[in-house]
Specification:
heterodimer, A: alpha/beta, Ubiquitin-like (UB roll), 5 domains, five-stranded parallel sheet, three-stranded antiparallel sheet, flat, B: four-stranded parallel sheet
């Protein structure tokens, strides 16, 4: 091709050969996921030798031994130019055609102009027939009346609403709603708090580990109907396997660090703030996602009600925190700081915007935190109002926030274009069940219990299980990292010793009195009771008695209570020791 | 936090004596938390630490009454949360069976209490003690059954 030798796999086309040589050939009706049709004729190249001389479509013509091809001869260029002129007559407004026309100096022909977006490339027809399956759309009509449509131009029964046709169409001529009976269900993107949508196959968020796509089986059309399969045919690495099953992996480990994180309460329980009733009332997480450059609006802060930047934002702190009746009695720790940050971000994005923060107290105890809040108040002109908000209600297209300003001793009413609530932080759901499985403690809010509040902040009562982060108590990133480092250090310390030290308060069997009933074995939660054979010097079996495995026994004493002959004693909590205590305290 | 006044003596100067068996991991830690948090509760309770509520033999309860206790409390982890997984289930079964037999033995079953207090429940611990101390006071001193020890029989 073009005087360069090239070799490609059998069955490949001239277009593949050109791409192997980095020679550019324009295409319109070609897509790597769909079998070629050679319909648009824009990719024509000239066969100079080794076959019948003439113009052939590169996307469909198979590569053969000995072919000599030229991709930019005068004949080729003239053909492409005429093709584009004819197409432009049909679709004068098509962007993709206009771009190509500029490259090949193609001007529209002096013919009657049509006004069509469809360039008749047939990609939609082919993808629906060859890749997805239902063949819901096809070419209808002949000659000048040829169009792409459903049979009899009626709503299609077989269309599955996958949207592949619309996705592939180079000119955006297809709106599936015109012929699709099933409304295309949009899946809210959970990471962006439902502010935009995602496909069933998706990478959950940019920093996901592993950073690979995953298929949401419940919404995937292939899993629902057996059709589609577009992702698999597009994947150049062949990495998609619909038959993959969930694997249960069992690992024996020496230490576990629980870092299950947090969620936030649903502020809709406070009906007076109008969350989910008025579209411009957001949670702090929704605000955070919207101002993020990787969020649904690429970082532009826009009112959900009208899509315009808000000229005034009111932040409400302590929604559900420090509140005993229907909320949480504790302080969620992070909200004062992130609200200050959000107010600053808002002012950076909307320079003439007004920011108000209703607070009870400002908790800014970390390093440089207080100085930051002071700067927000003084330099960024954020208005801090010490008081609670009674109600948020709409007036016209704005929201009225009515609250108290205790430092000036009066009520305030602020007309806001956006209200941001800071909900209380709670442990992740399902944490209580996890704690019971790991045999660690938790408090009434579900926060996991440390072994000692001062001296063992990262250990739990179960040896080998450690805690880090917000699952233990509300905390921000620096404190979570510090706690995680401590937990990792403790875990490494545990597994790096050659010998393990343990409490000596374990059970011991009196082999003289044990009669081998093994009731103790039934109550031991650790399987620490074993059968031991007592033999005389000749090797004759004298008795089978219980024996306690010192490595497994945890010293709970259930066996000791169960033993009918009182042959098991827990060292340090023996019966005579406990009776001595009872004697001493009962009088 | 309301302060709890010291248990006032009745006319004869009698104070109820409550012996409590606390499991090390939950109830004992919960009582410790009550102390650290400065919750106030009556001093009539005497705590005996055991590794698990499942270590409490029914004989310990009876021995306590025999030796002079007016009320016995056994407190452990909440069901499902036992540090040794199943110990508190054994305790619950054995000690409920004991309670069934207590009137036969001549002991008012109301003098035997069980509670579940977790390591985070300092305030619950102090509330439990306040409540059972009141009840012990209203039940009066426990007239012990005759023992074979050298103990003067109260007339």
């Amino acid at each position: 091709m073009n005087n360069q030798e090239v070799e490609v796999e059998e069955g490949r086309t001239l277009l593949d050969a050109a791409r192997a040589l980095s020679i550019e050939i324009p295409t319109l009706c070609h897509h790597r996921a769909v079998p070629p049709a050679g319909a648009c004729r824009i990719c024509v190249v000239e066969v100079k030798g080794g076959g019948r001389p003439g113009l052939v479509p590169a996307c469909a013509y198979p590569a053969q031994e000995g072919l000599v091809i030229e991709t930019d001869t005068e004949r080729v260029l003239a053909s492409r130019q005429m093709t584009l002129r004819l197409l432009l007559a049909r679709c004068p407004d098509s962007e993709v055609l206009k771009e190509l026309a500029e490259r090949y100096n193609a001007e529209p022909l002096p013919l009657e102009q049509k006004d069509d977006k469809c360039i008749m490339c047939g990609l939609c027809v082919r993808v629906c027939r060859e890749v997805i399956g239902p063949s819901a759309t096809c070419f209808t009509g002949r000659g000048a009346d040829r169009t792409v449509s459903t049979p009899y131009k009626m709503l299609s029964d077989v269309c599955i609403g996958c949207g592949a046709c619309a996705f592939l169409c180079p000119t955006g001529a297809i709106d599936p709603a015109e012929f699709c009976t099933h409304p295309l269900e949009k899946i809210p993107n959970e990471f962006n708090c439902g502010q935009d949508f995602r496909t069933p196959i998706h990478v959950p968020f940019p920093q996901a580990v592993p950073n690979k796509p995953v298929i949401d089986k419940d919404n995937c059309i292939h899993f629902k109907t057996g059709k589609c399969g577009a992702c698999k045919s597009i994947c150049p690495a062949g990495a998609i396997d619909y038959d993959m099953e969930d694997e249960t992996v069992e690992e024996k480990v020496g230490a576990i660090i629980v870092a299950t994180g947090y969620e936030m309460i649903d502020p809709a329980v406070y009906e007076e703030y109008g969350y989910r009733r008025y579209p411009d009332v957001l949670t702090s997480m929704e605000f955070e996602r919207m101002v993020s450059a990787s969020g649904a609006t690429d970082g532009r802060l826009l009112r959900p009600s009208n899509g315009k930047p808000p000229k005034s934002v009111v932040f409400l702190q302590c929604i559900g925190s420090r509140e005993e009746k229907i909320g949480k009695p504790y302080s969620s720790k992070i909200c004062c700081m992130y609200t200050a940050k959000h107010a600053v971000l808002y002012k950076h994005k909307v320079h003439d915007g007004q920011a108000f923060i209703f607070y009870m107290d400002i908790r800014s105890a970390g390093k440089n935190y207080e100085e930051f809040v002071r700067r927000v108040v003084k330099e960024k002109n954020v208005t801090y109002l010490r008081g609670r908000v009674a109600k948020v209600y709409p007036r016209g297209d704005k929201l009225v926030v009515r609250g108290a300003d205790t430092l000036s001793g009066g009520q305030v009413e602020i007309s806001a274009e956006m209200v941001v609530l800071a909900p209380a932080m709670i442990p992740s759901s399902g944490v209580r069940e996890l704690a019971q499985t790991l045999r660690i403690g938790y408090d009434e809010h579900g926060f996991l219990s440390e072994a000692h509040p001062k001296l063992k902040p990262v250990e739990t009562n179960t040896a080998g299980v450690f805690l880090a982060g917000a699952c233990h108590s509300p905390k921000d990133i620096p404190d979570s990292v510090a706690q995680a480092s401590a937990a990792a250090g403790k875990a490494l310390g545990l597994v790096s010793h050659e010998q393990l030290t343990r409490e000596p308060t374990i059970g011991v069997v009196n082999e003289q009195t044990c009669n081998g009933c093994f009731e103790c074995k039934n109550v031991c939660a650790y399987g620490a009771i074993e059968r031991k054979e007592l033999r005389d010097r000749k090797g004759q079996l004298l008795a089978i008695v219980a024996h306690i495995n010192e490595g497994l026994c945890q010293g709970c004493g259930a066996c000791s209570v169960t033993c009918r002959s009182k042959s098991i004693e827990v060292q340090g909590f023996r019966e005579d020791q406990l009776f001595a205590e009872i004697n001493a305290v009962s009088r | 936090m309301s302060s709890y006044k010291q248990a006032s003596e009745d006319a004869s100067g009698w104070q109820p004596r409550i012996v409590a068996f606390l499991c090390n991991w939950c109830s004992y830690a919960g009582a410790d938390l009550a102390g650290v948090s400065r919750f106030e509760y009556p001093t009539n309770v005497r705590i005996i630490r055991v590794p698990c509520s499942g270590r409490v033999d029914p004989m310990f309860v009876l021995k306590s009454f025999e030796r002079g206790a007016d009320m016995v409390l056994v407190s452990g982890c909440h069901p499902g949360d036992c540090h040794y997984t199943t110990g508190n289930y054994h305790a619950r079964r054995k000690l409920l069976a004991l309670r069934e037999m207590m009137s036969f033995l001549g002991i008012d079953p109301r003098r035997f209490k069980m509670s579940w207090v977790s390591a985070a429940e300092g305030s619950k611990w102090s509330a439990v003690i306040r409540q059972i101390t009141d009840e012990a006071r209203s039940l009066g001193p426990f007239e012990s059954f005759p023992t074979f020890t050298l103990q003067e029989v109260k007339k």
